[in-house]
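Most newcomers find our protein records easier to grasp once they have seen one. A record pairs a protein's sequence with a compact description of its fold. An example says more than a description, so a record of this kind follows:
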Amino acid sequence: MVDALFALLAFFAVLCGLGFLWSMRAPADARLVRLAVPAAALIAISAMLGSLYYSEVAGYVPCQLCWYQRIAMYSLAIILFIAAIRRDEGIAVYGLSLSALGFGISMYHYYAQLFPRGDTCGPDASCSVRWVDVFGFVSIPLMAGAGFFGIAASMLYLLKARST
């Protein structure tokens, strides 16, 4: 039940990201510009809470790639939350950089789960173990990647809006 909820939140993050990318076709809308940072902060905080749930409540041991994704997502949660409170649209470059890095790591991790080639992580946890499998294809790295995608798209929209 909780896994399905987190998977649906990941789909929501993708839909938000696609909405921001679609909106880039037209001139920037001031209302959407004001929503970009709070939306990204909400996605980052939700993803952070999800990862904490999986490790602290469900008891899943994070692998090395999970830790790298956490470093990016937890940092995003903090800086985007502060930026949302301060209404600081200058966060876009930093948010895009961290989310692009996190997205790359999460997609590599998802690939490592789909096509395991032995244990590529540390001795504590394997990167190829799928602790969660929702709808037959959604795992924790894919959910993280969805969050990073939504954040990156909102930051791209913000950068485009600020450049015009």
